[in-house]
Specification:
Elements: E1 6-9, H1 14-18, E2 23-25, E3 29-33, E4 41-45, E5 51-57, E6 62-68, H2 75-92, E7 103-108, E8 117-122, E9 125-130, H3 133-136, H4 139-150, E10 156-159, E11 175-178, E12 189-193, E13 196-200, H5 215-221, E14 229-233, H6 239-246, E15 251-256, H7 259-271, E16 278-283, H8 286-292, E17 297-302, H9 314-331, E18 332-342, H10 349-363, E19 367-373, E20 392-398
Parallel strand pairs: 1-4, 9-10, 14-15, 14-17, 15-16, 17-18
Antiparallel strand pairs: 1-3, 2-6, 4-5, 5-6, 7-8, 8-9, 10-11, 12-13, 18-20, 19-20
Helix pairs in contact: 2-4, 5-6, 9-10
Amino acid sequence: MVSLPRIILRDHKADAVRRFHPWIFSGAIKRIEPDAQEGDWVEVYSDRGEFLAAGFFGAGSIAVKVVSFQPVESLDTLFLERFQQAYGLRKQLGLAGSNQTNCYRLINSEGDGLPGLIVDWYHGVAVVLTYSLGMAQQRDRIVECLKTLYGSDLRAVYDKSAAVLHGGKSQPTNQYLFGEANLGEKRLGEVLENGHRFAVDWEEGQKTGFFLDQRDNRQLLSQHVAGKKVLNTFCYSGGFSVYALQAGAAVVHSVDSSAKAIAWTEQNVSLNPATPGTHQSYAADVFNFLKDCADDYDVIILDPPAFAKSLSARHQATLAYRRLNYLALLKIRPGGLIFTFSCSQVVSLDNFKGAVTAGAIDAGRPVRLLGHLSQPADHPTSLYHPEGQYLKGLVLEAG
């Protein structure tokens, strides 16, 4: 049996691994025996020779992403077990096999014990994102696991890692790993989410094609919009807009700076049954739209893209959240609701709440906090890895 590289930790750095944190930073490493290359499967030991973990070696500040805290005899077996456990959870949640929702997240990185891997399921098409070279090198295993889970229901596997995995030895390209020839020329799927129909473009759309992490929050919104005037900002493909219209909103306005997103929103609105409510979309900068629009909305959704993707950008992001929520509070009717979100992992809940609070003070309005929102259960996080809880949302009532 080939000897695996051993990562030996500094004595005072081993406790974090013993507490099951899945990231080992480069500064925690005392030595490597022998040298490890990016993407290698490695074992981690204390300086006293105690086995701690096994995972994939990386070239950045996160030197090891831990996949197992027990010795691993077979990666094939390990991966299949993790995929089966993940599928079992989605079945327990009522997602896998549902006739009302046929799109969901199957693998959520650390939350499903496979750091650096995202797999989203779109009614027969699995879209894969790998965030490390080590995980990217497991593509064949990933496909085999998917075939075992879904059998003939699996029509295609699309690897969309090029946008998130780059540099070093890895120069990935987006590609079909399985089933491309069976899809025809139109790479556009149609899915159901809580009975609502959506077109998903996993090739050209953002992330894996659709923001599955807002499913529960869209459903919550639908309970508060009957007969109301609703503004959906940063609408992307119109998820919140479709839910609002189907729930009886009188007026829905959808805003996004991307003309392609607006066309996609209109397509998704048309895919669903006609409603008495009216819908109007605007290809416009959201900040400018909020400054110029009428101040008579009953419900406003603020779901911007990540304003900060690194710690260095966090301050500017906080200012952007402050201004965005300030502008929205100027346009909401008394008693109206604002669903406001941040998906920036480096912006903590306290940072986000502080920015929203500052925006409310700037607007000079009394505001009540009605609830906290997050990602749904098919986006689980490890209790030992709070960094995985990236989606933060607040429901506000304006006085």
